[in-house]
Each structure stands twice: as C-alpha cells, then as structure tokens.
Design brief:
alpha+beta; 7-stranded antiparallel beta sheet; 5-stranded antiparallel beta sheet; 27 helices
Length: about 900
C-alpha cells in the first residue's frame, strides 16, 4: 500500500514552494538523486579533510559541498531507492553543488602575494598586508601546532594624553593577571573546507590518571567551547592559512578591550612568538598603539614546585577533576619560578629608554640577587645585566621580543614601577620578564629628597611642576661610566639608592616573589640607628617590603643619614630563593626548610595580610612599628615648622610651592597615623606549623593601648598634628591651586587648611572605627575574660575607646565644653571637631540603611567609613556603646548649656544628642 508523503518539487513564480501528494516510492525515487550526491560529497569531504590535515591537498583544489538533508529522510530514501542516482544528470543538484563550492571558495583567505603581503616567519607565519592590502592580516598555523596552547601578552607601545590620565602605562602587560590570555587552535571535525577553531584550553584541569577511560572522560567534560572559527586554506606544506582579521577585530578576545575598535597596522614574528601591532580606540575615544604578542609555551615541561604559604611566591593553580579517592587537595598551587636548567643565566637588558646616568643603579639592583642564588647552590652568577654599550649587545634587540628580559623607562604620571612576567600555566615556569619604571619617578625622587633632607639652605622642596628642571641639572652632574658611587648623602646618592632598591624589588617579582610587608618587623628599632648594621642587613629582612624614604632615627641629633633605602636583599629574600631554586632531594625537604624559615622569625606578610596582620603593613619600619610612627610624625611636624620659618624669613618664597610641600608632608603624617590606628584591635599571624596551622593571636594589650593613646593625642584639636596649631603655623604663608585651574600657576587662593585637617581626622577615626576592628576589640576582651589574669583587666574595650575619643575633643572632665572667653581660631576648630564627633557617634548608634551608607551615610559619616559599614555590619555591642557614649555627652552638654544658655554651639550639641538623653 502506498504511504502518502509530502515532497518539495520546484517553486511557484513568486518563489514559494508548491507541493503535491506522492507515494512513498515516488518520494524515494525523487530523493535518490540528491542523496546520491550527498553520499558522494561526504566521501569527498572525508578524503579531502584527511589530506588537508596531512598537508597533501593541493592549494588550488576546489572544495566539495558541505551539509546534507535531515538524517531520517536520508535513511528512508536510501532504503526505498536501494541505489544512488546519477547526480550529474540533475540540473538542480549540479547548481546546488556549484553554489556550495563557490561559497566555500569565497570564505577561504587569499594566497598572499609578495607585492601585497610581507611575510614574517616565527611561532606562526604572519602575512602583514601593505599597499592595497593594508589592514589585512593572514596567519599560517602548522598542523603540529594544533591543540598546543599559547599565551597572549598585551601592552601599549604608545598612548594619547587622555589615556595617560587613566594612569595607563606603556609596556605594562595588560593580560598578565587574567586567565583569558591562554589560547589554542584546533581543527573542527567533519568540516570542509578545513576550519580552525580558536578556544581556551582547560589546561588548569588535571586528571590523576589521564590514560584511563574515567580520566579522559573527566578532562573531556571540562568545557573548551569555540571562541571563533576560521576557514583554513591548506598551503601544501602541512600548514593551514587563515584570515586573522576577525580575531583582531574581536580585540583578540581579551576582555579588557572587548568594546574597543581595532585596526591592524603591522606585525613581526620570531621563533617563540608572533606580534600584532594594532591601533585601538575605546568607546570613549581613548586611543593608543597596542602590541599583542602570542607567546609559545615550552615543549619540555618544568618540574613544578608546590606552593608553601610560609614563603611568599606567586603561584599557578591547578584542579584535579577525577581525584575520587581524595588523596589530593581539590586545588594544588605551584610556585612561579624560572627553570634554571634551561636558563642557567638570566640576562636583564637595560633598555636604551633608561637614561645613561642611571645604568649603574639599575645594574646594581639586578645583580644584588646573586648572593641569594649562591646560597641556593649556584656557583656562577645567575643574574646578569646588559647595557646598550656592551660589545655583546644583540643587534636584533627589541623590548617587545620575548627572548629578552628588559628594564625600561616609559612616560607616566604616578612614579610607579612594575615587574611583570609571562608564565607557563601548566607548571608555573617563568618565560619572560619585563620591568617598567614610570619616568615620573625621575621627577618625584629629587622632590622627595628636598622635602625630607635639605639642610635649609635650598629653601623649599621642589614641586612636581618644577622637578623636570631639577632632574635635568642632576643628570648632568655625573656620567654612568664614572668610577665609584655618588657622594654619600647627596641628592644624587639618594636617587641612586632609591632606584637600585626599586629595581631589586621589581627583579624579585620577576623571579617569582610576592610582597613581604612583614620584612620590616625583623629589624629591631634600635638597629635602625646603626649604619653598619643597616649596610649588612638592610632596613628590612625583605627587599619585597615597602620601606619609607623619610628620615631614619639617628644615634644623636645632627648625624647624617647614610642609607635612604635598603642596600641589600634581606635574610628573608635569601631564604625565599633557597626554597624556590634549591635542588631539594624531596618535597619533604623543601617543606622542612620552609618551617625552619618561619621558626627563625622570617615571617611573610603578603598583600592579603595587610588587613589582618598588625606587622604586615606598608611603609613602616622595625619590629615595634609604633616607635617608627611616633618618630615619623615628629619629623613631619619639624619639617612643617621649618617650611613655615623659611616662608617667614624669605619674602619671595613661592606660597604655591610651599603648600605643595606642606600637603605632601601632611599626607605622609596622616598615613602614618592611620597605620598606627591599625594596631588597635589588631592581630598578629605566625606561620609556624607548631599547631598544625598558622596561628593568629591578638596584639599585646600594652601595644594596643599605647597606639590608641598616641593616635588620639595627634587628633587633639589644639595640640596634635591635626590641630589648630598646625593651621596657625602654616596657613598665613600658603596658597593652593583651585581645582578648576588644574596644574596651572593661575587660580590660587588661601587654602581651607582647617577643613583639610578635619577631613584627615575623620579618615583616622574611620580607621579606628571600622566594624571589623570594633568586633575584634570585643572578641579580645571576651577571650581575655575567659582566660582570666591581668590581661583581662587591661584589654581595650569599645566603650573605653569611644570614651577616650570623647575625652580628646571635650576634655577628660568635660572642661572643653565651656565656651571660651574669646572666640579664636583654636576655639572654632575645637567646636567643629566636637560637632563632627557627635555626628559620627550618632551614625554609629543608628546605622544608616545599606543604600544610604553606600551613598555616603546620609552625609553623617566619612565616605570611607560609610563604605566599610556598607560592606560590614556594625556589631551590636558597638551600636550600644555608641549610644551609651552619646548619653554621657548629652548629660555633660545639658550641664554646660545651663551655665551658658546663649552658646549656639552648645545648643547645637544638645539638639544632636537629644535622642540619647537618659531620663
């Protein structure tokens, strides 16, 4: 019996298909012709694709058709027809195949001709279009390179002025810290013409047993979806030619530039890499020249070394996807390090962008690490510095060539330096290193010297606006090839020491090390006065610390300072290199060494520890940092008074430059106060494994109370750093820049210095009153009470802290609530401090809703404290303590108002505290 079926048989005049009813046999017969063609095409596809992969398909061979009718129709028609029809006799089929061939041919890239493309042979062969083909870019990928990962490095080679306002730097790798920089090409299955797919290989996912069925399935189950497809043209030599233009247009799938427009302008290729030069423009019109480099990974894998948190290395994290027995941690981290078996000597090339006068300082900073590698067992210097005048300087040197580790200076605006690397994400092996120094460093460093160390004869510290001339005169004083070091204690010596120390710090990053802000805690306070000790041990046990360049304590007043920065790598640095680069017999030996480092007191405090470890702080010194902060703030006050005397005694002193210097000094002093405030409610971390894990303990009660008392003394309205006394000392002599005039010398006005100091005080208070700090204070008191002993009575509580702050502003016996006999600047300053403290307490006692806190706490709290409250809920005990303190203030204010009913200030305080009056 015939079974009806609908088959398509031509089209109407308007293009719409018409249908007629037919038997199954007729339908099968009609379908047989295209099916036969499909079968033939499939055979051609399989053969051609195999030939393409082997590299044997002729470059000009026409592609066969791709695609087929739905598989159920194919099966039904084939069963009914029993044989294939003659495709060549069907005009429609021939036209269909012809159209497919033409479409496939049109999708293929053109063969690059020498008059239109420049050929660059390297990791991939790059064909860069020029002339009529300008902007076009073709890429040849070898079959042997398929499924082989490579990493991308993206760095600006030029920036417009607007981009520099974003604090973007030339040559800084913009993909070094992002996981989307690893790519690979693969051949798409069952597609003709051959098609290459670009994808992110899941190389961080590992199998315990990759040869087992379960292991293969586990790894295969990790997504490696296609990012982009490229029709490929076999070139006949085992390579596939693709048009890389769509990849460039997609900003190489680097998420930092996903919205930017790109234009290919050139490229280069070398054995380990291929570089694309593109012009980029952001949606906001910010533009620049970007170089994107694909860097091949080594074929021979380095033996990785596990991470140990007692030593601060950058790491590469891997996951085990089929460790069903639970024998390994869910994730495992390897340290980032060089494979010195492949690279016995690491040469750092001092780029010609570094002024010749500073070569010796940079070379010093690089080679300082050799004693650490010697301690790790290397009998030859591992780190070598090369300068452009060396006889063996490479003729083909290029700063963006991955063969060269470089130190270069770039135009910038914030005096920063960075050290970045490219890493093999399979093992943590370091592949390339570049150190970038913002050339504003050259302008800022002389200003720092004059700010802190001039003897008074030079007058003011140099402002940034005038620093370029200072640098130019300084550079003319000494040649890099002149023997010996600069004159000790001189401005040139200061620049030499700071640049050498900065270089050593960045080199440390490029050999794998993270920051260690605990390094300064390894140096006793008294030893900072001993230049002989500092010359041997440094200012910190780690050059990976941030060490201030301000004056150090002296054995006696008037002694010159010999060291402005650490002159050596420290004891921790040597131990860290030993852990990472010694050829240990076993992982157990490496772990035992790490424990010995922690036991010796060479603790590490990385960036993550700054919020929780009182000794892991930036820009402090010594094992007793409160001593440093006291010394530093005294120095700030002395320098401010000296600047004021200079302005008073010299009538032609620039009031604008004076304000710049005072502002810098006050910023440094406030930073020191905030660091000291972090000692309140603080904890200290020890990474020794005596208890199985790192131990976190409260800071001593004596240190905590001493820190709170000293910080509050500097917040006193009439006596401290942030007081009316500072206003009276400086304000008559200074002018500040009006914001809408930018850096122009026009637009000056007397500064609102009092308002600035009130804001600074709020910042210090916000550090003291963060929710987490108040919670730790309460927890420490509870823990001490549970254990008993003398410490339980000495622990600083939240109510005691709030009461001490009130005493700072109102007097211990509320004596500063009485209206003064005469209204002066000091009394107004104190009144404003009192009003701001009451508003802050009211905000603590009645926390604003989250959305209000996000917007700044309704104007009641300093912005940074409001934002912290938005992230962290205020402990209930702190809310109650703030309410209790307000009730104490309310009672005192009520008595004061009764004695002076006409005081506007007291009436305002009574109104602000009315809700907290206890009946």
């Amino acid at each position: 019996m015939d079974v009806p079926a609908w088959v398509c048989d031509g089209r109407r005049a308007d293009g719409r298909p018409f249908h007629r009813r037919a038997s199954a046999a007729a339908a099968a017969a009609t379908a047989a012709a295209p099916v036969a063609t499909v079968v033939l095409v499939v055979v051609v596809v399989v053969v051609a694709a195999a030939a393409a992969v082997r590299g044997t398909l002729p470059a000009g061979a026409p592609p066969a058709a791709a695609g087929s009718p739905p598989s159920p129709v194919v099966r039904t028609a084939a069963a009914a027809a029993g044989r294939a029809a003659n495709a060549s006799s069907d005009a429609r089929t021939v036209a269909w195949v012809t159209d497919l061939r033409e479409a496939a041919a049109a999708s293929l890239p053109p063969l690059p001709s020498a008059d239109l493309f420049r050929r660059h042979v390297g990791l991939f062969t790059l064909h860069a279009g020029h002339g009529l083909a300008a902007g076009q870019v073709l890429l040849e990928v070898g079959v042997s390179q398929l499924d082989t990962p490579f990493v991308l490095s993206s760095e600006f080679s030029a920036l417009d002025a607007a981009a520099r306002e974003w604090y973007l730097l030339r040559r800084v790798d913009l993909t070094s810290n992002f996981p989307d920089g690893v790519f690979a090409f693969r051949l798409a299955p069952n597609v003709f013409p051959p098609t290459l797919e670009l994808y992110h290989p899941p190389i961080s996912q590992r199998s315990v047993n990759p040869t087992s069925v379960a292991g293969r399935q586990a790894v295969a189950g990790v997504s490696a979806s296609t990012l982009q497809s490229f029709p490929a043209r076999p070139t006949g030599d085992g390579r596939l030619l693709i048009d890389a233009g769509p990849w460039v247009a997609a900003s190489f799938h680097v998420h930092l530039f996903r919205d930017w427009s790109t234009l290919f302008v050139g490229g280069a290729a070398r054995p380990r890499q291929v570089t694309f030069a593109v012009n980029v423009v952001s949606p906001d019109g910010i533009g620049g020249a970007l170089k994107v480099t694909a860097l091949g990974l080594p074929r021979k894998l380095m033996t990785p070394r596990p991470m140990d948190d007692r030593i601060g290395y950058f790491g590469t994290k891997l996951s085990w996807v089929d460790d069903y027995a639970g024998k390994r941690p869910l994730t495992e981290t390897y340290i980032n390090k060089w494979d010195l078996a492949k690279h016995p000597v690491l040469t750092y090339y001092v780029d010609p962008s570094v002024p010749r006068e500073f070569w010796s300082a940079v070379v010093d900073g690089i080679t300082r690490w050799n004693p650490a590698f010697a301690a790790a067992g290397y009998r030859h210097p591992v780190l070598r510095a090369a300068v452009p005048t060396d006889v063996d300087w490479p003729a083909d040197y290029a700063a963006d060539d991955a063969r060269f580790n470089t130190v270069s200076f770039v135009p910038g605006s914030d005096g920063a330096a960075v050290g970045h690397t490219k890493v093999d994400p399979r093992t943590g092996e370091l592949l390339n290193a570049d150190i970038i120094v913002d050339d504003d460093f050259l302008r800022a460093t002389p200003s720092q010297y004059r700010l802190w160390f001039d003897d008074g004869r030079a007058g003011l510290a140099v402002s940034r606006a005038g620093a370029a001339g200072v640098t130019a005169s300084l550079l003319g004083t000494r040649s890099a090839n002149a023997p010996g070091r600069p004159v000790p204690g001189s401005e040139e010596d200061f620049m030499y020491q700071v640049l050498a120390d900065t270089t050593a710090h960045e080199v440390g990053h490029t050999v794998g090390l993270r920051h260690n802000f605990r390094g300064s805690a390894g140096i006793p306070w008294s030893h900072l006065k001993n230049d002989t000790y500092v010359g041997i041990h440094g200012l910190s046990t780690s050059v990976m610390d941030y060490v201030p360049t301000a004056p150090l304590p002296r054995a006696k007043d008037g002694d010159a300072q010999r060291y402005f920065a650490s002159p050596v790598v420290g004891a921790y640095d040597i131990a860290a290199i030993r852990y990472g680069y010694t050829d240990w017999r076993s992982e157990g030996d490496a772990r035992a060494f790490a424990e010995s480092v922690a036991a010796a007191g060479l603790d590490v405090g990385v960036d993550d520890d700054v919020e929780t470890d009182a000794l892991a702080q930036r820009f402090d010194l010594s094992a007793t940092p409160l001593e440093w902060h006291r010394h530093h703030v005294r120095t700030v006050q002395r320098r401010v008074r000296r600047l004021a005397r200079t302005a008073r005694d010299r009538p032609f002193t620039s009031a604008a430059d004076l304000y710049d210097a005072v502002e810098t000094l006050l910023f440094s002093g406030v930073a020191s106060l905030r660091s000291a405030a972090q000692l309140v409610g603080a904890t200290v971390t020890s990474r020794r494994r005596t208890g199985g894990r790192a131990a976190v303990t409260p800071i001593s009660s004596a240190t905590e109370i001493a820190a709170a008392r000293w910080v509050l003394s500097q917040l006193h309205p009439t006596d401290g750093l942030l007081s009316s006394a500072t206003v009276a000392t400086v304000a008559p002599h200074v002018l500040h820049r009006l914001p809408f005039y930018g850096r122009s010398t026009l637009g000056r006005a007397p500064p609102l210095l009092a308002a600035r100091l009130h804001e600074d005080r709020d910042k210090v208070l916000s550090t003291l009153l963060t929710p987490s700090r108040l919670a730790r204070l309460s927890a420490n008191v509870a823990a001490a009470a549970a254990t008993g002993g003398r410490d339980a009575r000495r622990r600083l509580s939240v109510p005691a802290l709030l009461g001490s702050i009130s005493g700072t502003f109102f007097g211990d016996a509320w004596e500063d609530l009485r209206p003064p006999a005469a209204v002066t600047g000091g009394s107004l300053f104190r009144a404003e401090a009192q009003a701001r403290w009451v508003r802050t307490l009211a905000s603590l006692a009645t926390p604003a809703p989250a959305d209000a806190a996000k917007d700044g706490g309704g104007g009641l709290l300093p912005l940074d404290l409001a934002l912290k409250l938005y992230r962290e809920p205020l402990p209930a005990a702190a809310v109650a303590a703030a309410a209790g303190e307000l009730s104490r203030i309310a009672a005192a204010v009520a008595s004061a108002v009764a004695a002076a009913p006409d005081s506007t200030h007291l009436r305002g305080l009574r109104l602000a505290t009315a809700a907290f009056v206890v009946a």
